[in-house]
Amino acid sequence: MRLPIMSLLIPTALFGHDLYLKPAKCVTAPGETVRVEYHSGDAFPVSQNPVVLSRLKDARRISATGDAAFTGIHDESKTLTVAGFTAPAKGHFWLLSRTEPNFIELDARKFEEYLEHEGLKYVSEWRKKNGESDRAGKEIYSKYVKSLLVTGAGDGWFNHAAGLAIEFVPLDDPYAAKPGAAIRVQLLFRGKPAAGHEVELQTVAAGKADRKILGNTDAQGVVRVPLAPGGFHKLHAIVMERRADRTKADWESWWATLTFGTR
């Protein structure tokens, strides 16, 4: 498949911008119209950049009772893209979006710093073993964002896999968890458990933001995620592979984020 290539300039202080969905509320009323923000950047929970709308695809809400596209997607400011969605009559439901593949090139030092920052040690080790540590990093990347919400008591759809190239799938319901509990979340890549990949957790609760590395996914692609009572949670992971066709880039990465709240 031929991938569209676009250029991107990244400030030297940053290695890449995370992308995630931040709904105005995670526990909704039946049929309620709710605002959702696209946050792009590395200043969680604040957005630093709008989404490139031409690259944004499949922006929709899915539930056991049907799917519906987001409405009114637009750049509200120089840092924020917003949209709206309608909550289903009941149950768990998902907000989804993805971006078209994009191209980036970093010099060797910046690329190695980026790999370290994102926990992509296996890529750095491959480059060292194959004499490429001093080469620029040429990469194609795409981003896949999900947010889990609930109307009413829920219906067990919290563990629904949406079929994205990469995605987090909770194995336990965060909206039914006891305060201070931990839930299991599985990382899937091309529909299969993604083992050995670093997962980052960021939370905001009681006005305080926190960031921690949860470690690598186990053999089944699972990590345990501690919950902040009444908090907003974001999981982030990247899978990177060596490309067979290196005409345009040597590496390809797939970024996954999952956001959710607690009761």
In angstroms, what is the radius of gyration? 18 Å
Number of structural units classed as domains: 1
Structural class: mainly beta
Q: Helix coverage percent of residues?
A: under 10%
Instruction: Give the termini separation.
Output: 43 Å
Spans with pLDDT under 50 lasting ≥5 residues?
A: 1-14
**β-strand amount:** over 45%
- In terms of quaternary structure, the protein is single chain
Which overall shape is indicated by the principal axes computed on the Cα atoms?
globular
The arrangement of helices and strands along the chain is EEEEEEEEEHHEEEEEEEEE
Query: Largest sheet, if any?
Result: 10 strands, mixed
Average pLDDT for all residues: 93
Q: Helical stretch count?
A: 2
Number of strands: 18
Characterize the structure shown.
The chain is 7% helix and 48% strand. The protein has 263 residues and is mostly beta strands. The protein has one domain (18-260). Strands 2, 4, 5, 8, 9, 10, 14, 15, 17 and 18 form a ten-stranded mixed beta sheet that branches. Strands 1-3-7-6 form a four-stranded antiparallel beta sheet, with no helix packed on it. Strand 14 and strand 15 (208-216) form a beta hairpin. 37% of the residues are buried.
